[in-house]
Amino acid sequence: MPRLTSLLAQSQTNDTSNGLTLIFFAIGGALIAYGAWGLKAGKTRGKYGTQFDGNAAMILSGIRLLGGLICCGFALYQLLIG
């Protein structure tokens, strides 16, 4: 009986980690795409629709790109290790 409960607990953690992996890949992919688009265009929008140009846009887009890479890296780690 203890073996059955351990198998059930293991399958639940795998389902949770797979869902977490998909969510982090989706968020990371969106951040990477939005950050790369902002770097290429040289302008981007902030949280409340504020237009950023020049260096501020480059910094904000770089932060988004870095955040996306971190999210995708965590998802890949969770996929391989978790």
Distance between the termini: 25 Å
Low-confidence stretches are none
- What's the number of extended β-strand segments? 2
Structural class: mainly alpha
Task: Please give the domain count.
Answer: 1
- Main sheet record: 2 strands, antiparallel
Radius of gyration, in angstroms, nearest whole number: 18 Å
Characterize the structure shown.
It is a single chain. The chain is mainly α and 82 residues long. It is 83% helix and 7% strand. It is built from two helices and two strands. It has a two-stranded antiparallel sheet. It is elongated and about 45 Å long. The protein starts with a helix and ends with a helix. The model has no long low-confidence stretch (mean pLDDT 83).
What can be said about this structure in brief?
With 82 residues, this protein is mainly alpha-helical. The chain has two helices and two strands; from the N terminus they run H-E-E-H.
Features:
mainly alpha; two-stranded antiparallel sheet; 2 helices
Topology:
Layout: H1 2-41, E1 43-45, E2 51-53, H2 54-81
Antiparallel strand pairs: 1-2
Helix pairs in contact: 1-2
